[in-house]
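Researcher: Structure prediction, please.
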Amino acid sequence: MEQKKVEKKDGADCETPRGVVASAASGNRRSTGVGMVFIAAFLLLLLILERRRVFFGPLVLSDNDEMVCGVANVVTKEETHSFVDVTAAPVYFQGRVWRRGPQDVEFDWPCVSWSFDVHVTAAAAAASASVVGVSMDGGDNGFRVLVDGAPHRDILRTDALTRTYALARNLTAGVHRVEVVKETEAGITLSGLRVVRVRGVALSQGLTLVGRPARREQQRRLRIEFFGDSDTNGFGNLGSRAHWWSCFPNLSLYESCYHSYAHLLGRALDAEIHVEAWSGKGITRNAADFWTPTMPDYWRSTIATNTTRSSAGVPWDFSAFSPDLVVVYLGSNDFATPPHPSADTFVSRYVTMLNGMVASYAPSRPQVLLICGGHGAMDNDPCPLVQQALAAFSQSYDAARAHYVSLIDVVPYPDYYGCIEHRSVSGHATLAEYLLPKIKGILPSHLVQRPSNE
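Model: Predicted structure follows.
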């Protein structure tokens, strides 16, 4: 895959918003000098522990995406004609979110998205002055912006201040659907990623929000929940395997949940998806931060990181989303570094986790799909134990609703791998293509063989 070098334009700091003066005290938390060397060394140690494979090279990205130097297009007050609080607007969220109060919606899990429909008058379109913005504290995360289902701009990079960011400009007359997808995960070691707080939608003159027609229940969307680690959230998929060192200074720049197999499957199946995935997490122990908290500890979390006192301990309301299918892709991080868990411990904890997950949705009984494998011993060694866990789980659940798919060597290595031996965008696309017919075979035909109602 051809690579392209990233250059900073006009000496701009790729972590500082264009046209915005960042606070020297709080707006730029990046260390310099000796501190930067220490941080880089610490990151190197942690991620070698996670994947134990190393390569060196210059700062590059794959051809699948571009780095955006800073946050472009902060909307000015002069451009804003109307502002609608997010909780009062016809804005539709997908994923685990916390409606914190009358004006805020908070979240931090990857692939959480929100969308709304906006009407643009002919006059506003003719003037080429339409602006659609969102007011939020982006928490240093990256976001994919789509208009009418197609990527509309480069990845929106945010900082940890409340700003009104331009999502789209100069739209044509008519109704357009604007969607924003959180690309980054809840947290990567020393990345600085934080909770996102969305406050409202800003519109220029001649633009209004419009509601959507209700879906008939018999045509409701398929619902899938994904529970996993870096292999599910898209960690490293925007980077280059040949030049792994470029990933370390800014790990979140090389992560795209939109290009993960989970989101690709969601789009292919017209499914509503929830993704709870955190890099390095295991079932009995973690790859880098070892024993606690492990991924099962996050099952009931609305806000994964709990970085603010206000969001700590907010349990997820499982009645808000009842999936047709739960996909679990965990296990490799338990065996990343010694001491490895015993077979009995791993299987027992896996079964306990699965029983707790399906109990959360009772009396509904979702299909459960366990997937395992990749390239190398770390990815593949746990797979026989995952199959043992499935067999034990099936004894107390419905065997017809419990499934296993092996992913061993499904993705060509090394061609379809990116940063730190994680699959690239092409690798995730290969996974999605491989899993799609298997998932269709698991689910009822009326859920996977019908046109979209939106």
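Model: The first strand starts at residue 3 and ends at 5.
Researcher: Thanks, that helps.
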